[in-house]
Every structure is written in structure tokens, then in C-alpha cells.
Amino acid sequence: MAKKIRVMQFGVGPIGIKTVQYVADKAGFEIVGAVDADPEKIGQDLGELAGLAKPLGVRVSGNSREVLSELDADVVVLTTTSSLERIQPQVVEIVSRGKNVVSSCEELMYPWLTQPEIAGEIDKAAKKHKVSVLSTGVNPGFLMDFFPLVMTGVCREIRRITVERIQDAQFRRLPFQRKIGAGLSLEEFQEKANQGVLRHVGLVESMHLLASGVGWNLDKTEDILTPVIATQKVTTPEITIQPGRAVGVQQVGCGYMDGDEVITLIFRAALGEPNPRDRIVIEGVPDIELTIKDGIHGDIATCAIMVNAIPAVIKAPPGLRTMADVGLIACVS
Predict the structure, then answer these.
(1) Are 192 and 59 part of one and the same domain?
(2) Rounded distance, CA 288 to CA 250, Å?
(3) CB-based burial of residue 2 (10 Å sphere; 0-12 exposed, 13-18 middle, 19+ buried)?
(4) What pTM was estimated for this model as a whole?
């Protein structure tokens, strides 16, 4: 009988909880530890916290150093923050204990051009301790970068890549709806946009991964954020929005090479969006257009791809890896 992969969960928020549920369903995995900073979660059984049918016998700890030192784990699933600067100490602490990392941190997905110094430090630490680090998710990590990159593999040449991720946010959890500015006045939306709290994190990183994969050196990138405005009253079980207020956000990433726009990434999430979809358009030889009707559910896909990436990350060469070089990721039983 094959040895089970020992998994530690670091961060027990909504994404961390769903990840625990998915890991617990896999016969080849065993959850051995959990860490979170929330005093209300510390000491609770992780299985009960995640709503599993029975307790796991794993208590949430607030002392990461103690847990990482005492527990034997093959991999740590890290779901604490979108900020590379804030997550760096956590990643370094984990890898220094000889443990691989799979993370949902968007800025860690491809930081080589956006924050090269931190990327280099993480890469160096991981190689020193002979483990690998990967950040992934549905977006960034798959739909707007890795997936279109794979689709270019059947092209003789490519001239331009456009990716759309259009979501009807009324089916997402309330924190996500708040995150995209649903219900805000236009003045409130602009204020939060200026604070950087409404944007989809990772759009620039997606452009850089995609460009790197096809051998393009981008001259510059743009990241343009605008509100999606309600033209009529929008009502959901949790929120009511009057006309003229924001129902969501649109963010467009543009990547330029030799003055031409060669990458366009369109992310729009709004309550009541009439035609949700994930769509890839590759202009080249041959031209390719691929549409996933209704789109892929973000929370499910993000947790699934992190869990499914665990075996690949354990097998990967040491260092800071990306979705383009970590190896095959497929659904594991």
C-alpha cells in the first residue's frame, strides 16, 4: 500500500476550509496539522471546523513555528494572503523546515518580473532546503494564463491572445461580492479602487506567465479598473442594489510588444451578468476560439487545482515553480 501524502493546512479561512474538505476526500492524503491566526479557531478540531462528518483529531494551532518543527508533513497548503510581501516570511519559514508549498497567493503565481527580489529569495530558500513552491488557482494559475498557453501548442504561429473571464457574481459568497464593489456608490467605488482593495489580484502576473511561455518580451503592461454600473434594480438574497450604483468590477489587462497590444485579459465580475463565460481567442495559424459556457466556478476550481497540484509539487525540482514548469496536474483520487 502506497504511503499517504501528509498535508498541513496553513490558513483556515473560506478557501482553506474548502481545501480541507477536498483533501479529506482523497484516499491518498492525510491531514496532519493546521495553523491559523484567528483566536476563535485556535484549539478547534479542524474536521469540525470544516463541517466534516467526523472530527479529524487535528487541532488548529496559532503557533506556526511549533507545528512546522514538530509535525512531519510532505506539503503545506498555504491560503493566507494575496500579497507576496506579506506571505514571503511564511513561505520561507515553511521551506526552511523542509516542507513543500502549494499556495493560493496570487502575487506568488509569477513574481519574477513584478517582484524579482522576493521571488529570488523564495527560490533560493526552496532550493537550499530541496523543496518546491507553487502558487496556483483558477485565476491566476489556470484560466487566463496556463490554459491559453497550452492551447497555443497546436499553433504554427500566434499574433495575439485574448482571454475573457465573465462571471455572474450573484452565485458567489457575500465576501466576494463585497470584494468586487457590489452595492457601492461610484464615489465609494473609486475610493476603494484607489486603495487597491477592489482589483482582481494577479492579472499582471498572468500576462507575464503567458508572455514568457510563448517567448514574448512585453514592453509594458496596463491594468485598467472600472465599475460595472446597475441600469436597473438588482436584488439577491443578501444584497439589493439601486440603479446607478456598482454591481461589480471590470478589469482589463493589456500587454504590449513593439508597440502592439498582443495580450488582452478581460476580467468582469458583476451581479446579474447576463452571459457568464470563460473564453479564449488566439489569433494565429490556426485561429482558435474556445468558450466554456457559464464559466468555471472559482472557489471549487481554485481549491481543486491546489489539491490536485500536491503530487506534482512534491515531485518537482526544488525552487519557486510556476504552472508552466511544475509538471502535469490532473485530478487525483
Answers:
(1) no
(2) 24
(3) exposed
(4) 0.93
Position 328 in a domain: no
Q: Is 15 found in the same domain as 119?
A: yes
Q: d(Cα 221, Cα 202) in Å, to the nearest integer?
A: 12
Place of cell 521551506: 95
Co-location of 122 and 240 in the same domain: no
Burial class for 222, CB neighbours closer than 10 Å (0-12, 13-18, 19+) = middle
Question: Where does residue 272 fall: left (phi above 0), alpha (psi -120 to 50 degrees), or beta otherwise?
Answer: left
Q: What is the pLDDT of residues 121-180, one digit of tens each?
A: 999 999 999 999 999 999 999 999 999 999 999 999 999 999 999 999 887 777 788 889
| CATH classification at residue 198 | 3.30.360
Q: For the chain, how many structural domains are there in total? A: 2
Angle (nearest 5°) at CA 126 between 123 and 129: 150
